[in-house]
Amino acid sequence: MSISLFYFVAFLTIFFALLVIFSKNPVHSVLYLIVTFFTFTLHYIMLNAQFLAIVNFIVYMGAIMVLFLFVLMLLNLNEGSIGSKSNLLKMVGVIAGMCLIITLVGSLRALDTSDPLVLQTQDLGLVKNLGKVLFSKFLLPFEISSILLLSAMIGAVLLAKKDIKQV
Amino acid sequence: MENLTQAIQGVPLNHYILLSIIVFAIGVVGVLIRRNAIVIFMSVELMLNAVNLLLIAFSVHHNDPSGQVFVFFIMALAAAEVAIGLAIIVMIYRNINSTDVNILNKLKW
Amino acid sequence: MINLVWIVPLFPLLGFLINGLGRNSLPKTIVSFVGCLAVFASFAVSMGIFIELISEETKSFTIPVFDWISAGNISIPFSFLVDPLSSLMLLIITGIGFLIHVYSTGYMHHDAGFAKFFSYLNLFIFFMLLLVLGSNYVVMFIGWEGVGLCSYLLIGFWFSNSSYASAAKKAFVMNRIGDLGFLIAVFLIFNTFNSVEFSSVFPQASNMISGDSALILITALLFVGAIGKSAQIPLFTWLPDAMAGPTPVSALIHAATMVTAGIYMIARSNILFTLAPETLGIVAIIGLATLFLAAAIALTQTDIKKVLAYSTVSQLGYMFLGLGVGAYNGAFFHVITHAFFKALLFLGAGSVIHAMSDEQDMRNMGGLKKRLPVTYLTMMIGTIAIAGLPPFSGFFSKDEILAHVYENNKIFWLVALIGAMFTAFYMFRMMFLTFNGKFRGTTEQERHLHESPGSMTIPLIVLAILSALGGFIGIPAVFGGSHWLAGFLAPVFEASASKTSHLALDHTTEYIIMAVSVGLAILAMLYAYNRYVKQAHIPADENTGRTGLARLSYNKFFIDEIYDSLIVRPLNVLSGLFFRVIDKAGIDGIVNGFGKGALEASKTLRLLQSGMVGFYIFMMVAGILALLVYSMYKI
Questions:
Q1: DSSP string, A97-131
Q2: Residues C417 and C536 reside in one and the same domain
Q3: Does the structure show a pLDDT above 70 at C455?
């Protein structure tokens, strides 16, 4: 294993991300997105953030993507049912994205040489270590996020169910 | 696992930043060029993940677990957001029988 | 007692508040009681202060009331100054003010705005007391502005009559012109001496050289203020018009107190003026011109109050002439005596007007001697006093001024002497026209003729006694007196006295001066007697043509008309022009232009709100880009 593994995975990430936005069929987009997220998971493992890698794997690739697929299935959106924007607008969008990359790179000086990333503590991203931080320093945000999830659940149910009076 | 973690030893921090920027920009381009609300939503998820990657890279760089905790929170938030957002899309579809954002121009003056 | 001086202005203020707030609910008896009591209480305290001051060794007390303006190196306390000058003014204001309040209870009894009138009067007394008590120019300025306001309110007391209201407006505007001069002078004083406190300004000033340009500028501007307030050329025309107000107002404000504020202010700042001889020269010339012009106008007036008004302007001219030749003492002496006899004359005229059912034209009077004996007698005393016949009060004060003028400039003296002769003539003319001969009014007026009630005659009697005997506070050395007033006021004028030469006339010259002026006054009196009693001459009415000087005098030298065509009309035209061109087209155009521009711009800009979500996101990205570029170049 060498450094080139990172560049290989990074290439995959970018490649599938592009496929996500450029494929015509939304179902394909979702599938490519799953692959993209998987490459993210690989990145996380390489950074030894094992807990987050697993969470990413379960939450994003599992739950969220299944949600997307379910919605697509429910709405029965087929290929081409929604036309994409005109080519001119596409070009403008791509150029804007390029500009964004250039300015971001410029403002963050991302092309300069920098120190290599060195993992100082081996168990930084392990469950034990993160759990300690999460339940001591970030206990209150953690509890609040539970309320957030609850309210999101209620909201989602409320929005998605059919209006009884209307029927 | 040991081998994998040793693989990153030596990747410059800037390359993580570059990767994140590129993925983020792809997300932005996706939002700009697509009309399907669901694909736009997916692009937003791409952007979120780009930021997540950056946070973890910095967390490792600074040897500080807080960054990873933030990512955890962002994931929780993303889950909530997706649930609500998709519910809204379903509502929109029921009303206009489409998820084309160009039809949703009631907000104009 | 001196430390309690802040009580003096407090009483009238309380009176103003009580009468002002309760003007619709309090009965007239309580209103008049409160109004008179407030001023009488002030008078009593002033008397106490005066008596205490005589026995004190030091003659000047500064009593701080509270810190008023204190910012950076500016410190202006709200404090009062008690010294011979201000204590005498206190006595005049509260004493005569009290008498006039008592008089008003009778005079204004039938007026609907009774309580309003008393609250205004009390407010006036309050501001006048502030004016004379203030220990710095700023407190003085508050009083100065306040009396101007009260003057406006009281002249326009019967504001439903539009010509009265415009007379009030005229007085206010002319006063404002003077006030501006005063205000700029205060700024200059602060700029020059870094203080507005009398106790700090005057010692600094007395170390400056005579004729310093800053001093000349300050004194000239102060004098502009005095011109406005004390009705001198060129701002004197408001005073005759101010006779639109109720007669007690004319007596209190436009004869005894407010108009003397200018003289008080110059007397207070005497050291500044002494060191600015150029300004003093202007003061003397303006005073002289005013006294002569006003006396000449008074010769032919037929309205009893107008005669007195011009007489007041003329007497104020004497005071300024006195100030101008450095006779601060004499000028202030004349302020006191003039307050006595002019208040008396105005109140007497009020009594006549009251008896004549609001008739003011002397051509319709005559023969009132028998019907109004008290009024006649008291007014006669006042007339003799103002004409300068010994031993009544006017003689002493006027003579002191004339003696100083004689020593200073013989031509000035000659003109002033002619003015004095005019004074005697028009005053006796007024008396004879009013009280002698046959009654010329309507029968209804004749039936209604009556002597005024006690509340009006008692003040007349008191004032008559004061007019008769008031001169004895300043008997000059030539009659073997010690001139108590001069001795009492000496500390105030001390600094100036050391810088000016003393009166160095020998007694023979002084006797001659007196004899000449008295002789001319008697001559004028006899001529008036001959013309108006023996020949029973009645002034012609409006329509008959007058010729030459009489026409000029009767029409007040057309000064109002000249002002109208020289100042008022061009200003009106100019304002019209400004209104149409600059205001309507320019300023309104700009303001409306902004409105229209915003409207048009938003009509175009609203098209940006297309409702296209993609476009919004695009704009958002563009915004982020712009921010990033900005931050890139900033770092």
A1: HHHHHHHHHHHHTTTS--PBP---STTTTSHHHHH
A2: yes
A3: yes
Query: Residue C128: which residues within 8 A CB-CB, separation 6 or more?
Result: C93, C97, C143, C146, C147, C257, C258, C261
Residues C376 and C518 occupy one common structural domain = yes
Among C183, C197, C185, CA closest to C77 = C197
Domain B12-98, CATH class in plain words? mainly alpha
Is B74 within 8 Å of chain A by CB? no
Closest to A52 (Cβ–Cβ): which among B43, B45, B56? B56
Query: Are C280 and C311 found together in one domain?
Result: yes
Q: Sorting pLDDT into bands at 50, 70 and 90, what band is C245?
A: confident
Q: Does the structure show a pLDDT above 90 at B52?
A: yes
Contact yes or no for A103 and C629 at CB 8 A: yes
In single-letter form, the type of residue at position C221 comes to L
Q: Chain A: which residues have CB within 8 Å of chain C?
A: 85, 89, 92-93, 96, 99-100, 103-104, 106-107
Which chains touch B (3+ CB pairs under 8 A)? Answer: A, C
What domain count does chain C have? 3
Where among C510, C535, C554 does a domain terminate?
C554
Model confidence over C339-357: pLDDT tens digits? Answer: 999 999 999 998 888 888 8
Of B31, B101, B108, the CB nearest to C610: B108
Question: What is the spatial distance between Cα B8 and Cα B2, in angstroms, rounded to a whole number?
Answer: 11
> Is A1-81 a CATH 3.40.50.300 domain?
no
Q: Are residues C101 and C142 in the same domain?
A: no
Same domain, C338 and C351: yes
Contact pairs from chain A to chain B, CB under 8 Å: 271
Rounded CA gap, C171 and C152, in Å? 7
In chain C, what residues touch A99 (CB-CB under 8 Å)? 625
Write down which residue in C91, C114, C135 finishes a domain: C135
Same domain? C264 vs C401:
yes
Q: Is the ipTM of this complex over 0.90?
A: no
DSSP structure class, residue B105: -
* Eight-state DSSP code of residue C61: E
For residue C41, the enclosing domain spans: 1-135
In total, the C-beta contacts within 8 angstroms joining chain B to chain C are 31
Distance CA C307, CA C379 (A): 14
Domain ranges in chain B?
Answer: 12-98
B-chain CB neighbours of C611 within 8 Å are: 104-108
Chain A residue closest in CA terms to B4? A46
